[in-house]
Amino acid sequence: MGTFGGVFTPSLLTILGVIMYLRFGWVVGNVGLIGTLLIVTLSTSITFLTSLSIAAVATNAPVKGGGAYFLISRSLGAEIGGAVGIPLYLAQAFSVSLYIIGFSESLTAIFPALDARWIGLVTTGALGALALFSTQATIKAQYVILGLIALSLVSLLLGSPLEDSHIELWGVPASQSVGFWQVFAIFFPAVTGIMTGVNMSGDLKDPARSIPRGTFLAVGVGYVIYMVLPIVLAARVDASTLVAEPLIMERIALWGGAILLGVWGATLSSATGSLLGAPRVLQALANDKILPGWSRFFTRVSGKEKIPRAATVFTIGLTLVTVYFGNLNLIAPILTMFFLTTYAVLNVTAGIETFLKSPSFRPKFKVHWFFSVLGALGCAAVMFLINALATVAAFLVIGMIFIWLKRRKIKGTWGGLGRGMLSSIIRYALLRLEKEGDAKSWRPNILVLSGSPAKRWRLIELANDITNGNALFTVSTIVSESNVPQEKVKDYEGQIADFLSNKNVQALVRVLRAPDPFTGSTQLVNAYGLGQLVPNTVLLGDTRDAAHLNAYSEMIRHFYKSRKNVIIVKDDNNKGFKKKRVIDVWWGGMKRNGSLMIILAYLLKNSREWQQATVNVKMVVPNTEASAGARKNLDAIFSGMRTGFSYQLLVAEGRDFWEILREESAESDLVLIGLAVPELEGDFEVYYTALKEKTKALPTIVFVLAAQEVEFDKVLH
């Protein structure tokens, strides 16, 4: 189909529909001529701004079936597209009910003996059969209806006043009228016809050309008609009569029968247009697997015109239910909320696409992002003014659908704005990130030298508990240059990322080829990071091979000289962290290692896995006399920390520190001990070998070395 038959005609017929014939007089009567012109202008402004956004997105890439859902999902991703697409389908389906109920009302106004409910059910069945039979036949029938509407409008203009009245500028008295925003909610569905043409996108010969032209033309013609009609109505009929009589146009037209033909044609064509569009949205949702697996039959098409008959039958069934129980004034505000939500998201889509200036976004029809944002803000503002509670409810429904789709992990085969948005945010943040930052803003950024994640899972587990979703950590693996070609590195990173995702761990992943693990780790620490966002802490396991001790010690020394905090996890018997109930911190004061150990213990304590743990800060003093002065100082220090930790003074009385350590922490789940500075210790290999020997009988130990140029004691104050 082309522009005139595929977009302009169905859009205009939907705009000039049931609201114009059966509720426009009521609108003028309630808010008067001035209020009506304001409502028409505001409503059309929102749809016009949305039309600009639609034109921009529709001319950027090929548009297939699904209309607005297709445009949103291909830009904002499957989850947001589905969260908006499902309410959009319901809005389209309810639109069918709106128009059929309007048709039934007009018929019963002429023939009071008829039952409006049964008229609606029979009409739904007849229009449904037409939609199932032929799309082309339905479109051709709309040309005749367009002629009938034109005839009815001419008849109305040539008519005469019903009574001796003056132009009602402000409508009936406030005590007898409905509020402005309530009237707006009833009227707004009248200008939502722009979706009709967009929903037929899959049946258009050239959607990128037809959608903008047909939509703009329909909006413009509709606006002119809706600005002229209030003047005619206000000049010929008293406000109270306009409110009381839905079919007042019939009485003031030159030939009342033309109005009846117009309202019947408009309501039926609008219903048919929505009955064509709604199933195609449902079909697109099913094609993209947004809906559950049982809905796959909605994807089936029949005949040369590829009519989605299963989706159409479902829509007919839904319409029958809403027609049976529905009410025009009840359905119209619901549709307003659904359509405004869709319009807002469409505007957001176009605005973000334009603002980000992605290389892939090159629309033929260019719109400044300001107009799209203005359209989105207008939609949101009007929604809250109409009904704040209903607006919140609408966003909650969309949010719930989004969360449901997010948990299903739908994988779309198309790109989205998410990556571009995040890239822009990251760029903005990185360029403004301070070089060092204040100690108060310090957070760990951990580089985990895990090797094979499955074999050294406790390292990843500890890093995940320390960061607790509030800081970054990277799982890194060094692979052999001789065994792993460069082209396989990305595959390994993908496998590790999938492994972490299955374990519900959110972390960055880096795989590096190197001659050996120690050289690779040194290279990684030297080069890994982005701008000021680089790891400040290296977490790794202990080395158990004496032949590697020299290279391992040199690596630790290099980390320290690179100003990276070092956390070494020593777990000789692979005990892990057992029950995660007791953490011992062997403390020597608020110096660098001491402060960092308290911070790490506090972060662990606030994680879900360790929240039931007791943190014991233990300090050894040589004798009883020394404990009195130490206790006074420690009371003040721990009170200022605000960690909730208590301390324990242990009197040596000649006992060796390591003997006390083994006695006190034998049953603990995790022990934190400070590590000496490699530069000052001399022969670090000898020191480290002795340290391992002295602690070999203990449970899992974490050696902590503070190297970063941060005053960690200020983090605790």
TrEMBL record:
Entry membrane topology: Multi-pass membrane protein
Could you tell me which InterPro entries the record lists for this protein?
A: AA-permease/SLC12A_dom, SLC12_C, SLC12A_fam
Q: State the UniProt keywords alphabetically.
A: Membrane, Transmembrane, Transmembrane helix
Ranges for domain Amino acid permease/ SLC12A? 7-415
Q: Name one GO molecular function term.
A: chloride:monoatomic cation symporter activity
Annotated ranges, domain SLC12A transporter C-terminal: 458-570
Parts of the chain that traverse the membrane = 7-26, 32-59, 80-104, 116-134, 141-160, 180-202, 214-233, 253-276, 307-325, 331-352, 373-405
The superkingdom of the source organism is Bacteria
Keyword Nucleus on entry: no
| Presence of the UniProt keyword Membrane in the record | yes
Query: Where located?
Result: Membrane
A single cellular component GO annotation: membrane
In which broad location class does this protein mainly occur, judging by the first location in its UniProt entry? membrane
Q: Which Pfam families match?
A: AA_permease, SLC12
Q: Which range is the signal sequence, renumbered to this chain?
A: none
For this entry, the protein name equals Amino acid transporter
- Natural source organism: Cyclobacterium xiamenense
